[in-house]
Amino acid sequence: MPYEFRCRQRVEFADTDMAGIVHFSNFFRYMEKAEHEFLRSLGLSVHGVDGPDVVSWPRVNAECTYRAPLSFEDELEIHLLVREKKSKSVTYEFRFRKQAAEEVVAKGSITVVSVSIDRGTGRMSAIAIPDSIDRLIEVAPQEMFE
Amino acid sequence: MPYEFRCRQRVEFADTDMAGIVHFSNFFRYMEKAEHEFLRSLGLSVHGVDGPDVVSWPRVNAECTYRAPLSFEDELEIHLLVREKKSKSVTYEFRFRKQAAEEVVAKGSITVVSVSIDRGTGRMSAIAIPDSIDRLIEVAPQEMFE
Amino acid sequence: MPYEFRCRQRVEFADTDMAGIVHFSNFFRYMEKAEHEFLRSLGLSVHGVDGPDVVSWPRVNAECTYRAPLSFEDELEIHLLVREKKSKSVTYEFRFRKQAAEEVVAKGSITVVSVSIDRGTGRMSAIAIPDSIDRLIEVAPQEMFE
Amino acid sequence: MPYEFRCRQRVEFADTDMAGIVHFSNFFRYMEKAEHEFLRSLGLSVHGVDGPDVVSWPRVNAECTYRAPLSFEDELEIHLLVREKKSKSVTYEFRFRKQAAEEVVAKGSITVVSVSIDRGTGRMSAIAIPDSIDRLIEVAPQEMFE
Under an 8 A CB cutoff, do A14 and D36 touch? Predict the structure, then answer.
């Protein structure tokens, strides 16, 4: 059962700011993109129809620590790890590295909760992680976080 | 009946790119923001519930000509004009000026169509501009475009 | 000496995602915008020329906890507090509330470091917070964080 | 000598808005990304150092016509064509198609000018297209635009 995933991301021009580096908010977009690629690799989608309802995964926490700036056209490897799984939530950790380098240039996490969205009202209710998803994702071994 | 609107926009850090100026895609966000402020000033919303359906205004065309770059913390005046009104669409023109200056630094337009979105399927169908909106918006005099 | 600041933010259409709520990454843009408004209110800029160098404030950490979703056209009050000040860094805390409500819908923080950017190479070096800035910002009383 | 280029783009969650489709401003980011991939395929960069100056390509016009909405996780093919080449500017045309389909769902263009940016002041001056770039790009045959 998978507990990690790796994907690549190239820094686009529109991701940079006038300081000449990737704007800090874009690391959160990169993390989310890696999460969605991970789900797709399992045949899942972060936002899907499940009978009469839409099941989605709003974020309840997001965090990032920046160790080195990234520049236009840098190629990144994003390493996703499942850090925690509770009845209604999952926490992913993300480690950013430049191409062919070992050093972690940024490290972040996102905690998502499973919700059902009523299509009429748009109202969200927290639900237990759907079984079809729960049985596909495993928490990474503790030693990977030390 | 109103055919023009003016609002202000400050350039945020996140709007800039590594060339030190506002990224060109953000002018489209600024235009849309001005359009929505215009609609709000009339008591309308660009995306609202009308009985069982959601009425929205997807864009069918957008265009911008850039004459001078804009920088962080610049304050802009955005001047919206209703350029054309058809049975199912409206075209807005936008003129960007720096604070206290007459020169137009960018000029753009957006053409929107009136659609009804089915809440079950998300499918969009073009509809005639709702009467409640049609009677509030007028096309600007031709001489304003010369 | 100021240790807090309040400003307002309206949710724009482009800030929303297909779940119908503000995309989580945009809270970081809102926080940064509040930080920059705070600095401007003190006559400062987050990115300015200081003799031969450019002084800027890259982020080393950013974090946000989301308690309730925000929707298009919601008006927010953002309450900034200076939480910590070290020799080379400042940590700001941000509390988001909907208009005329007391409940905090999101709470986040950003830690920034003072750097000097060499204009020739673009290289950044951490520096002590410039005196002109240091003497204008104070840490908020501890009881405000309890 | 190349006059066209094809690349792929997947629609990310953050690219959508509350109408459930790709926000119109993001098509401009997709176009720019395709332009930069095209330049990279030629060994070029859109923003590079050329002796004492930085050579960059600010946009003077951008335009897009939207024929069908795009949704989360759609995969697009973007087909770039060099439509016009003048002494100081290049116009690219972009055609968006969904995977394995022939229908054009959106069509746009971007006109860029070659500038030199003074590293001290950040000031931009229009220059003739650098020879190293000019000799690598050709205008597509007229019949491709009919």
Answer: no
